[in-house]
Structures
1.
Amino acid sequence: MMWVIGGVAAVWVAVAVALSVRAAAQLRRANRLIATLRSLGAVLAAAPVRPVEVGRDGAIRLEPRLAAELGLDGSGVARLSDLSQGECGIEAEDLAALADDVAASALSGGRFERTVRLAGSRRVMDVRGAPAPSPAEPGTLLLWLGDATSAESEKLALGARLRQTEAALESLTHLIESAPFPMWYRAADLRLGLVNSAYVAAVEGRDAADVIQRGAELIDSPDDDSPRAAAKAALEHRHSFTRSQPATIGGERRMMKVVDVPLPTGAVAGFAIDIQDLEDARFELGRHIESQRELADRLTAGVAQFEADRTLSFFNQPFAIMARIEPEWLNDAPEFDRVLERMRESNRLPETRDFPLWKGERRAWFTATEEALEEEWILANGDHIRVVGQPLPDGGLRLILEDRTEQVRLASARDTLLRVRTATFDNLFEAISVFAADGRLYLWNNRFGSVWDLDESWLAEHPRVDELVPAMARRLVNPTAAAQLRELIRAATTERRQGGGRINMADGRNFDFAAVPLPDGNALLTMIDVTDSARIESALRERATALEQADRVKTDFVANMSYELRTPLTSIGGFAEMLAGGYAGGLTPAAADYVHAILEAVARLSRLIDDVLDLTQGDRHGVALERDRIDLGGLCRMVAEGLQSGATARQLSFKTIIQPSAGAVIGDSRRLREVFEHVLGNAITYTDEGGSVTFEAAGNDHEAIVTIVDNGPGIAPEDQKRVFDRFTRIGGTHGEAALGLGLPLTRQFIEAHGGGVELVSAPGQGTAVTLTIPRGRR
């Protein structure tokens, strides 16, 4: 029995142990479940969302914390529509939309999302709904509500930024499309992906799609320098790749600046700017700089240019000479201060007490704001140098040195000359005034003011000539004559014409005046007192009139006497010819000689009378000429033969030269024969025995030339102008010689033919007379 009781007890103990072990295990599982529930509760409490259970009948269950957030009393909330009752409840409009979503989800079992606004604030809650998991009843929905205020704000901000970005992208796209220069985009494979209209026009494509499909590149170059290679280089170096390459655009070769810009996506964007005009301008600028330097090399002024670092970059030869510095040293690009120090060593700088301070002041020229700084350097040896410093836009400096030593000396001499001129003007007998181009009185002497009785202080105001005319008119006999002075001054200044005249003063004086244009555009008016000379001129004019009348009376008397002498001379000649002809019987040889002498004297006297008549008639009425064709050579031979006997009698060497070019002339043969006889007869008459006389006739296409040359005593220079005057007697080696009427008639007859007479003579060497006779026409 005890065994049985012990066995039962053992069984109960075993059962009790087993139950205890099982209870302990369940207790542990319960504790773990409680811990898990607490953890889930803590997670749920810490979660940013709150659950709401919505039953099939529309009843809801929500956490007190959510009710508190919505400003609701949790005990009074039973349905979904109650969520809008609190102070911070859901807006009615959003709650109605949420109810529709809940109803739709309950029917379809689908999920939904919505944002709802809370009344009285800007808070926004995100609602996400889905069927509740088991063991919830079918048709039950589980809503999760979370505060999405910040997320919604960020979403709105992102939306605004997205819209701004889209607008900026659209504007940028429009800008790129409207850009006047080619732009493109290359994808990661470096093929063209986008091009703008300027690119399409540059490669002469139909449209952007055509250009991208053909892969038309803007720049045609070798593979090493191709557009793809440049884009690849930009990607590899991760910065913009810029280069200048030529391209053919619109059939014209243009220089382009091409830029490839790597993008973070591995693509490359690029653009090309036409810099041909810039290159042309750079080329022209280079040429301009070169021409300026060439011009500077030809200037007499010294020019030196320093860079921004104050090193010498250019100088011309005059600068090296003025600075007295070797060009080889200047070619090493010395610094500005060293150049000044070297010039000081050569005594080419002005003396100064504090040279470092003086040098620092000149160094400040590099940063001066003035366009140019100018000063005068007076050197120890008296040289005067004008220095101009020009700050350059790049921070450099250009120095220009001009040696004005000679100009200063000339200015001093000019001042001296001006003083001398003033003193000279004031002491001249003439009244002198100078008028400027605008008609104002510029200079005058004391004589001018005294002649017109003008106040010196008023003249110092430089009045215009229009103002001077009324003052001048008061001093004239004829006041309107003052306007003539004004017109002459105007013509001299504006029209550069010279003029003059005479005016009569009211006090009886007479003045000759002249207005002369000066090289500087001014006009000089001179007035000289000719009162005495006018009186003398008037007397001389009266005497000349009397002499002319006496000359006319003498000419008329000579002409009348010539006609009166011709009648008895004709009778004498006639009776002498009758005696020579034997009408009175035979003559003895002596009587025949006497008659012959009478006939020669009658012939000679007849020629003299004819000459006198020709001379007097020619002076009064002109010479009447015959117009015949004359063989000049034959006429000259006939004259020479007639005078041969006289030359032989004086034992002269007489040569007659008739050139073939003598030809013929149209004229009066009698007058020309008389001309040749007069000149040749004088040559034979006044040439010493044993001398020589040459008679030559020649000519050209337009005129005949007859020359008579002798080696007689010649004619003194003071007498050569008088040999063509009537009844002139000149001195010679044989005493006075009367040339008679021959040479005056010679000039008169030759000039009547349109020719000329030229006489060349020297005492002791002979005389040459050249007669020029135009060929003439009938």
Note: The longest strand covers residues 252-262.
2.
Amino acid sequence: MSDIDIRITGRAGRITFTRPQALNAMSYDMCMAVDAAMRQWRDDDEVALVVIDAQGDKAFCAGGDIAALYDTGTKGDFAYARRFWRDEYRLNAFIAEFPKPVVSLMQGFTMGGGVGIGCHGGHRVVDDSTRIAMPECGIGLIPDVGGCHLLSRAPGYLGEYLGLTAGRMAAGDAILAGFADHFIPREKWADLIEMLEASGDIAHVAAHALPAPPSSLGEMRADIDRHFGGGSLQAILDSLSADDSDFAQKTRAVLARNAPLSMACTVEMLRRLRAEDATIRQALDLEYRFTWRSMEDGDFLEGIRAQIIDKDRNPKWQYAGDTGPEAVPDAVLNHMLAPLGADALTFEGENRQMKIGFIGLGNMGGPMAANLAKAGHDVTGFDMADVTIAGVKMAGSAAEAAKGADVVITMLPNGQILRAVAADIIPAMDKGATFVDCSTVDVDSARAVAQQAEEAGLLAVDAPVSGGTGGASGGTLTFMAGGSDAAFAKAKPLFDIMGQKAVHCGAAGAGQSAKICNNMILGVTMIATCEAFALADKLGLDRQKMFDVVSTSSGYSWTMNAYCPAPGVGPQSPADNDYKPGFAADLMLKDLRLSQQAAESADADTPMGALAQALYAQFVENEDGKGMDFSAMLPRFEKRGHSE
């Protein structure tokens, strides 16, 4: 991704924002890429710590990229923004709770979404250029991304002051307010990063730090605490109005420009969070209640219009009187901060119910959908056949199953049908939802559908599976996924329910490419394994003795050791059940044909793949292989002589 550089260097997981021309503003894809990387690094013993930094001198991250939120919100589509905030807030909590040290180096502007990324780790570094702020009340929002948690823990009533005024914190201010830990001059950052990468020892951060610079906030503490401790926006405004000091009059003028509803809710949120000594999760839950309603019932869209779109700096706020903010009724505050019920924010380790559309409920898709429903997800399915799947509600059409879904999964016979279904369901899906195709199809179809989905504002993953019907029923499939980091991150929790392993293979089409290559190897090795058993029979070699030798020597393979085609030998397999299909020979032929289609398209020489395709075509179309397991090649070879 050109906007972010994610890699492992030495002992450090490295995340660098690389869009300085946009002040490193945080997009949804950037957010989900960070999430995906950190979830992988959490369990990677080679990664001792995480370092987050940014290119450019002006900003670490100046906030969220809100143009897409405005575009969808003004069209009456609130789902995209809600999904953005939900996933961003989950990432904020994940960073705060990360079990390994997280180092953030924050130069220049660090605002909004940048605070959510940079200010929740345990080792937050600032320099002389740092300016940290929570300016959300100026655009009709509230200090979110966990900002209210940080503000509620600031000394005295600095939180109320910073949250309502959007005051910019220099290095000393940020350390005083609890948004940063260490002051390290910028010229030392490169050396610090190099030492962290080489050693994985977090002690280098403190060793590089200098004493914190003076804080202007500290000098204003008496005035701030006197005026901002009243417990409500109206009490703060009344206190400032009664004081003719320079501080009071300037501060009241700043508040007069911001959204009264946002400021009133901010004060109420900080009061609640401070009283409850709340956790980061509790703070994010409270923030999400407001942001979830902010477009429909709040001033967020008007704030973006005035500040970002039209830039007239003249927003028409609710509760903005001629002489300044008016009192916001308690009933309105209670509504904006009321629990969301089924729409409430959830986190890792909690029950995250998704609304899932599942299209294609055959031998593979049916058990996969059932496993998702069993895990607590709300699954609506559709299939051309009249089927009943435990826990799955049935829709009358594919588009009906896809409407309003967080994720739509397809499991379809071929690329032509996939293209047709995609053309039907993509227009019905909400922008920001995820389209996961688990079919095994040609690479060109996978890429075409992914492009169509992305152009419609969806996340797209091609994720064919390996493991057969047994793996589908048992939830032990392997997923080979292609698509963006953000799309893979969204689908990964569902892969974890339906399977035992998911590998992100690359961009769109990479999942199909991996599946095709894998199954070409599988088809070739199964033929070789069956040929070897047939040869052993005619040489008078006992099958069990052959298995004992080959399974522990250089002939070792999955088709020998895990899926042996000889009945009564090795672990139980379809050979022990009259070759009733676990993976049908028909499907192997389909996959081998896809491999040769891809080989022709890529100008690749695959003679063994071509021979395997020809043998399976003969077996399925001209012999008795149709409807049999692909390992039923063994009885075929048993009957044939050398010249046949």
Note: The first strand starts at residue 4 and ends at 9.
3.
Amino acid sequence: MVFSIERRKQDIKALKEETLDVLIIGGGITGAGTALQASASGLKTGLVEMQDFAEGTSSRSTKLVHGGLRYLKNFDVEVVADTVQERAVVQGIAPHIPKADPMILPIYDEPGSTFSMFSLKVAMDLYDQLASVTGTKYANYTLTKEEVLEREPQLKSEGLLGAGVYLDYRNNDARLVIENIKRAAADGGHMLSRMKVVGILHDENNKASGATVEDLLTGETFDIKARVVLNSTGPWSDTIRQMDTKLDTVPQMRPTKGVHLVVDRKKLHVPQPTYFDTGKNDGRMVFVIPREEKTYFGTTDTDFKGDFAHPTVDQEDVDYLLEIVNNRYPSAEITIDDIESSWAGLRPLISSNGGSDYNGGNSKPIKDESFDKVISTIEQFQKGEVDRYTVEDVLKNIETGNSESEDNPSAVSRGSALDIDEDGLITVAGGKLTDYRKMAIGAMKAVIEVLKNDFNVTYELIDSAKYPVSGGEINPQEVDEETDKLAQLGIEKGLNESEATYLAHIYGSNAPKVIALIEEVEQIEGLTLADTVSLRYAMDEEMALTPADFLIRRTNHMLFMRDTLDGIIEPVIAEMARYYGWTDEAKAAHTVKLNTAIAESDLKKLKGDGNR
């Protein structure tokens, strides 16, 4: 399967001529997962994304397939059971991506602690039963204070009571998206990035029947016709609905911003992912996670009203995270100058659902004086002194006392919603990355029902729990053994062990295709042999159209290999310019865009160093 710019041209031609069964707007994890199911089920499927695949929310997560242990504080068994079971499914269909990586959760004797040692053990035992890992090597256990400090000597010892260790999974969020996209494309789906929706089409009955799109590579505008239109644009969900001239919609999205910061592991060394209360008695928890030779930590959770396409790290975000991490790891003494890279992303929260997945969502119980607060807040709103979100927060607390306790009858997973507007536009929004496949199932059932009822076309939905993504055709029970075999293929072709292992982990069952390129391409000066074949594969079969696509989302080079990034920028750009036949002007424009992204990741503006 070739998924390159030539394939893109063919897909555009097809979209101009065909009437699709479903047009999916949005190429994040939910859109990608839905496209996989639609294409595999035989639907004529198209997907358009105005940026790169996963460029928005789906490449800016905490990079975990998280189990939701925190919900068990309130014995929310159903939610955790659903989450860990779905996590196991994702690990089965994409075994080269989520990798088991047990989490350590230190407990401190301080106000507002999420768990005590006793309640943590109870929660972990229940969690293990729900995750079916009781009695296995991944079963939970507790550590004494001394054992915790032996494992993580930089941790603050004052007030430390001990810790629990339980199963969790690290993830490569952007890779999970592209592997879903590639599988959908292999099954005949037309998957297009840099294709912006500028209008919703309607038929003679005023039903949504496609979209007008602008090709951001060429500037061409054309119509795509479809029987069903599915909006899976995350934070942009309201934008698409408001673009629909046949709708009079009330905004439902309330995006919040999450920030992560990366430092060298020599500065902050943790042997395994670590998860703890902020120590601020604010109901939130923070992750500190080792990755490559780095350590990253986050996240924040603040309302965001800026440019959805361009969330940035602010000084307040840095101050908040550094205060928390330096309090927990006093000897680290991390400053902003130690931050090597960073990312900011938006959570596509639904206003009526309130809290985010495993951070935030910490509404307080109702107090007697809260009624007076509601009256006062509404008066302030009428005077223009506060916004609607402030009113919603107060009302939500009055009505439920807990921002996550309301049952949404249309929800297809925790914190998500599936809506069908009067003109037939389907919107799936909210939710967590772990639940992407279930959200896609809910959306696909709605699509198939419309096709049957309105168009007399019948499709049977595939069992996506057993349908691997691209690269996922390896035994999930023997991931380590099969990955070692794939790495050996690379070693036999001249890669060193580290390079071969890296390619095996990132590409899974597609690794032999990548390794085979060693025989076809000449090593690029300035790049390792592994980077050379990885770049070619990204352009040939992963629709990497810009240097940022390759260095940020097809690989994590900008985030976790910052030490070697500067040295490979020029050869990567030069090779892509040669491959795509860029003019000098186009090459310069791509260089500027990449350098801007790197400067933002490096926090140059906050560091006050334009030459760094």
Note: DSSP finds 20 helices and 20 strands in the chain.
